[in-house]
Design a protein that fits this description.
Layout (H helix, E strand, L loop, with lengths): L6 H30 L4 E7 L2 E7 L8 H4 L4 H18 L6 E4 L2 H23 L3 E2 L5 H13 L3 E5 L6 E5 L2
Parallel strand pairs: 2-3
Antiparallel strand pairs: 1-2, 4-6, 5-6
Helix pairs in contact: 1-3, 4-5
Protein name: Protein jag
Organism: Streptomyces milbemycinicus
Pfam families: R3H
């Protein structure tokens, strides 16, 4: 807590800062969409103490899929560029999350299911369950799902081969 502020004021300051991050990111991404001549609407939110920005489209075209790329690789790169744009404006490191065309939301649902199934397998067999290598975002979602299922998990290995291991009780 900053000297002279109350816990409630600290929360408002954080929310305002995250909303500012979202606005900076939205402006940056709108410029990118204009340059690429792509249609998309920007949606901003604050989720789990981080700014969340989504690019969505009403059209049936798959233009936004170009911004997702294979296995979300382009999305990850755009997220980092957007975080850098926010950092340039604010001077603060950003943990902003970017989603494009619902890719990350769908991925989160798949990974939650994977984590739940791995937890069930570890409970059933009494053996650790090692999953395939994942990105930090993917590992976080799996760790959360395993914890919700009442088990522990840990990450092992070095990037880019870092993986989640679900531990039995």
């Amino acid at each position: 807590m900053t000297e002279g502020t109350t816990p409630a004021a600290e929360g408002v300051d954080t929310l305002t800062r995250l909303e500012q991050e979202g606005e900076i990111a939205a402006d940056y991404l709108e410029g990118l969409l204009d340059i690429a001549d792509l249609d998309g609407d920007i949606d901003m939110d604050v989720e789990a103490d981080r700014a969340a920005v989504s690019i969505i489209s009403d059209s049936t075209s798959r233009d936004l899929q170009k911004l997702v790329g294979r296995d979300g690789e382009v999305l990850e790169a755009l997220q980092e560029l957007t975080r850098l744009a926010v950092h340039r404006e604010t001077g603060d490191r950003s943990r902003l999350m970017l989603d494009i065309a619902g890719y990350r939301a769908r991925k989160r649902a798949e990974l939650t299911e994977l984590g739940t199934k791995a937890a069930e397998e570890a409970k059933g067999t009494g053996e650790p369950v090692k999953l395939k290598p994942m990105t930090p975002f993917e590992r976080k979602v799996v760790h959360d799902a395993v914890a919700a299922a009442g088990l522990r998990s840990e990450s092992e290995g070095e990037e880019p081969q870092r993986r989640v291991v679900v531990l039995p009780v």
